[in-house]
Design goal:
Layout: E1 19-26, H1 30-41, E2 46-50, H2 57-61, H3 63-81, H4 95-106, H5 112-121, E3 124-127, E4 130-134, E5 137-140, E6 143-153, E7 157-159, H6 175-180, E8 187-191, H7 195-206, E9 210-214, H8 226-238, E10 242-244, E11 249-255, E12 258-263, E13 268-271, E14 273-276, E15 280-282, E16 308-310, E17 313-315, H9 326-340, E18 354-357, E19 362-367, H10 370-375, E20 380-386, H11 391-396, E21 404-410, E22 415-423, H12 426-438, H13 443-448, H14 459-467
Parallel strand pairs: 1-2, 1-6, 2-3, 6-17, 8-9, 8-14, 9-10
Antiparallel strand pairs: 4-5, 5-6, 7-15, 11-12, 12-13, 16-17, 18-19, 19-22, 20-21, 21-22
The structure holds flavin-adenine dinucleotide.
């Protein structure tokens, strides 16, 4: 049913009465879309309610346009690396094709095609802000809708505004403005050296912006291994990016000259633009969670292994706090949809969720860091190898010089519990570790494999050998 055909269902007194569905999905980001597609495909009557654009953050302001920009930045860097490898060349950075490709990939931030896709699949799509009224009842745009099987909360998140003096008086960028930008600022201060901050910082630096990053933790990518942080800092320096770690922004002031960020302890950074990338908070407070016994003030919605949050309520995606990644949201959507359809599905398992930061070089990891493994009380062995020591890294030269492989093993069980890879194509290499960790492949078996020569994945063998005999034979 199209939006235009949407049934006017008022009773004689003009009171809006309920329209009935099997499933109501609130929020049509990648998680909500996955549930909607699968439950519609399974023959259920599905109502999808989306406040902004069907598709959510990933296709319009997240994964896809940011990787379009990363691709452009990496192309520039590779062109510069030609000197000494392939000859002389000159390339003049130009933002116009980047902005053009971002517009192309996002359809100029238009969700018509996505809406039509869901309608063709048989769902009803409604643009509006939804709120849960009670178990099985949702309100949007002054109408009530009922769901006989369940309500799925997939409302995602939005950027956090950090509590910095003066910040609300400043016209700062979030990932959204950074993705939509039609030109490159002469200078840019980035608050936060997590994946989003680093990817965007590197892109803008490569297109000529004078970029400084402020990070409160004592290394870049604080959620990842410190070895990665140290190596990425060297790479950022090569792009001319200044990184202040262990630094806290305490005041922000805007003037006609630009924006000044005052750091605790004294320094002041100045730039034309400020990008805030200090994390995201989940959209939970205004969706009526209290009406189904859930806490609207919680950081995330607690779910069981079938993504059930309360009687008749499922939650998927960023709101569940199981990892803010599209692949997690889609995976959860699959599990929740199976449950709604009464189908068997293995319980949700997050032991091997990969994380990739698409800087150049990429940083990819899965499972536990060394510290997390030690904190859980495991007997831990660590194997570290440098990308540049592998045949492929040595051949690759520029762009691979700072890479590192790090494997974390549970010595008693004889299996890997975590691993990280930094270097060209690290996001591809990590796939091998995802399989090894998820399937608990003994380290001894991993050392028996024949890794293709000379590839980046073969670097894992060096790190496995570094684990040595400390790991039980399995
Ligand atoms: C710059 C950036 C780069 C990223 N890069 C990657 C990457 O490379 N790989 C990766 O895996 N992940 C990446 N992510 C993360 C990824 O985008 C998210 O994990 C993913 O979009 C989460 O999907 P979701 O369905 O949970 O929520 P969202 O995509 O946030 O969608 C939630 C939807 O719910 C809607 N909504 C909210 N409240 C209501 C309401 N009351 N009623 C109706 N609708 C409502 C919102 O408008 C939104 O459209 C990136 C994120 C950013 C910001």
């Amino acid at each position: 049913m199209s939006l235009a055909e949407h049934r006017e269902n008022d009773d004689d007194e003009g009171v809006v009465v309920s329209e009935e569905y099997d499933v109501i999905v609130i929020g049509m980001g990648v998680g909500g879309e996955e549930v909607a597609t699968r439950t519609t495909g399974g023959g259920l009557r599905v109502l999808c309610i989306e406040k902004k654009l069907v598709g959510g953050e990933c296709p319009y302001w997240g994964c896809i346009p940011s990787k379009v920009m990363v691709r452009a930045g990496t192309t520039l860097a590779e062109a510069a690396r030609a000197v000494g490898l392939a000859g002389e060349g000159r390339i003049s950075p130009d933002w116009a094709p980047v902005a053009g490709r971002v517009r192309e990939f996002t359809g100029s931030w238009d969700d018509k095609a996505a809406v039509e896709r869901h309608q063709e699949q048989g769902a009803t799509v409604l643009h509006g802000e939804a709120r849960i009224l009670s178990q099985g009842e949702v309100e949007a745009g002054g109408r009530r809708y009922s769901a006989s099987r369940g309500i799925v909360v997939a409302t995602g998140g939005e950027p956090v505004t950090p509590p910095i003096d003066g910040i609300t008086d400043v016209d700062f960028w979030t990932n959204r403005e950074a993705i939509e930008a039609e030109s490159v600022p002469a200078s840019l201060i980035v608050l936060g050296a997590g994946p989003i901050g680093l990817e965007l910082a590197q892109v803008y630096a490569r297109f000529g912006s004078d970029v400084s990053i402020v990070e409160v933790a004592n290394h870049a990518l604080p959620a990842e291994e410190p070895e990665n942080g140290a190596a990425i800092e060297e790479m950022l320096a090569r792009d001319g990016i200044s990184l202040s770690t262990g630094a806290k922004a305490e005041k922000v002031v805007s003037s006609s000259a630009g924006i000044a960020v005052h750091l605790a302890g004294g320094g002041v950074l100045k730039a034309e633009r400020l990008l805030v990338a200090t994390g995201r908070r989940h959209n939970l407070s205004a969706i009526g969670l209290e009406n189904v016994g859930l806490d609207p003030e919680a950081r995330s919605i607690e779910v069981d292994e079938h993504l059930r949050a309360a009687e008749g309520v499922w939650a998927v995606g960023d709101v569940t706090g199981k990892g803010e990644f599209t692949h997690v949201a889609v995976y959860q959507g699959r599990v929740a949809a199976a449950d709604l359809l009464g189908q068997q599905h293995a319980p949700a398992d997050y032991s091997a969720v990969p994380r990739v930061t698409f800087t150049d070089p990429e940083v990819a990891s899965v499972g536990l860091t060394e510290k997390q493994a030690r904190d859980t009380g495991l007997d831990v062995a660590v194997g570290v190898a440098e990308t540049s020591s592998s045949a492929r890294g040595y051949i690759h030269g520029p762009g691979a010089e700072h890479g590192v492989y790090k494997l974390v093993a549970d010595t008693r069980a004889g299996v890997l519990v975590g691993g990280s890879v930094m270097g060209p194509a690290a996001g591809e290499v990590v796939g091998t570790l995802v399989l090894a960790i998820k399937e608990k492949v003994p380290v001894a078996r991993l050392r028996e494999l024949i890794y293709p020569y000379p590839t980046f994945v073969r670097g894992l063998e060096d790190a496995l050998n570094e684990l040595g005999e400390a790991v039980a034979p399995g």
